[in-house]
Amino acid sequence: MSPILIRVENESAFSGPVAVGTPTSEQVAMVRIAAHREIPVGTSGVWECTPGRFRRALAEAEYSYFISGHGSFRVDGGEKVEFRAGDSIYFAANTQGEWDILETVRKAYVIFA
């Protein structure tokens, strides 16, 4: 199998911004996606989100590498994990909790089907 290149050429590669599905703060975070691709294990791409708090919407397992920004994620009934540019997080399937984006975040992701 040949390698699958995932490239964001410029800002025009991103979708238009849309509000997060389940906001939990007055400031509603906006997200946009670029280079979303089907890959053998699921999907991958680049996700960007403006400041705000909201519930994690995915049920699938996910690996994320944070390119820029910072914030935190609090697992329901658990600890808060703070992250910043250069960090990676793995979410097991069915991880539920709340994002708190403090500075616009851009991350590369793999969602495992």
* CATH level 1 name: Mainly Beta
Low-confidence stretches: none
* Biggest pleated-sheet summary: 8 strands, antiparallel
Distance separating the two termini: 19 Å
Overall radius of gyration: 14 Å
Kindly report the CATH topology. Jelly Rolls
Q: Judging from the principal axes of the Cα atoms, what is the shape?
A: globular
Bin the helical content. Answer: under 10%
How many E strands?
8
Q: Which series of helices and strands comes N to C?
A: EEEEEEEE
| Helical/strand content category | mainly beta
Number of helices: 0
Description:
- This protein is mainly β.
- It has one domain: Jelly Rolls (Sandwich).
- The chain has no helices and 8 strands.
- The protein has strands at 18-19, 30-39, 42-49, 52-55, 61-75, 80-84, 88-91, 97-112.
- Strands 1, 2, 3, 4, 5, 6, 7 and 8 form an 8-stranded antiparallel β-sheet that branches.
- A hairpin with a 4-residue loop joins strand 5 (61-75) and strand 6.
